[in-house]
Amino acid sequence: MIFERLQIRNVLIKPAHILAPMAGITDTVFRRFIKRLGGCGLIMTEFVSSEGMLRHNLKSQRYLYYTEEERPITAQIFGADPDHLAEAARMIEDLGFDLIDLNLGCPAKKVVKCGGSGLLRDLPLLERILRKIRSAVTIPFTIKIRIGWSDQEIVAVPVARMAEDCGVEAIAVHGRTRMQGYSGRANWSVIAEVKASVRIPVIGNGDVFTPRDAEALHAQTGVDGVMIGRAAPTNPWIFQQMAEYFRTGSYREPTESDRYQLIRQYYAMLVEEEMPGALGKMKQFASWFTHGVRNGSELRRSVQSAMSPREVLERVDAFFLGTACTVSRAD
Ligand SMILES: Cc1cc2nc3c(=O)[nH]c(=O)nc-3n(C[C@H](O)[C@H](O)[C@H](O)COP(=O)(O)O)c2cc1C
């Protein structure tokens, strides 16, 4: 069975389906929500600034909050100062994370000046950073890269080889360049070249939206694991669907009732945990999630005009209980 398991030193990732780090999305509530649905073997924090961590910035501390239920869990950091990154890495280890990941993919202008995909243009500095982080921590160390800065500067293979030489223990490759942003298609051929050029596990990422996409990614690249980003908030069942598909050759589509239970569960978690920014997150999630729902635009409108998280919950209940009489409340 493909993507059945992946071992990164002492960390077993089973199945080898990984939730991609996504700033503003993969907070502790979303990660637990995905974990509870099943089929996801590893989750990661949103990226956290090493500079912010050293300043004990509140936001960074919030991003690094996790619960035992989330294990195994990776903390992802970014930055460009080797000593500061090493110090931040030690803090990550002290916080009890299972793995540490360095972000080498973020395309945002303000990030590339101080890390992210900007480091793909300065390999000598990147090598210093990798060695510093490696010697600062004992937990497994991974990196997540884009394939290069632009079509003229594809560096995924040399970066992967260098990373392996520096003691990096796995590499996730998003098959796009920095200049591409999220446009065009992810280039899986470069992911295949990376896989063929290193011995450490390679995790493929980019444009996997269905279990069949994951199967095709495996067939075309031979990667050891699959990482899912944008599909997760629109179809949080994707991890479970992949597990079912690889086991049986087919998978179940969610029913209207499943959709209701799911949106309600996520919202209830946000309300109960008094997540900062819960109302915004609920509205954001509603705009992605309601696309598969019958009369979804009505639900979207209703959620968008709510004034508090509790009001959103009430509106979701009113919508589903009013339109789908077969649905029964979970609580
Ligand atoms: C809203 C958003 C936030 C993201 N934040 C991060 C991040 O914090 N760290 C990171 O390495 N990648 C980040 N990414 C990139 C994803 O992890 C992933 O590489 C990319 O979305 C491609 O995978 P996909 O086609 O499955 O979405 C982000 C992507 C999105 C859409």
Describe the structure concisely for a colleague.
By secondary structure, the protein is α/β, with parallel strands linked by helices. The protein is 46% helix and 16% strand.
Question: What features would you describe in this structure?
Answer:
This protein is an alpha/beta fold. It has 2 domains: 6-248, Aldolase class I (TIM Barrel, Alpha-Beta Barrel), CATH 3.20.20; 256-321. It has 15 helices and 10 strands. α7 (156-165) links the parallel β7 and β8 (170-177). α13 packs antiparallel against α14. The longest helix is centred in the last third of the chain and has 17 residues, at 256-272. The two termini are 37 Å apart. Residues 20-25, 46-47, 76, 103, 105-106, 144, 174, 205-208, 228-231 line the site of flavin mononucleotide (FMN).
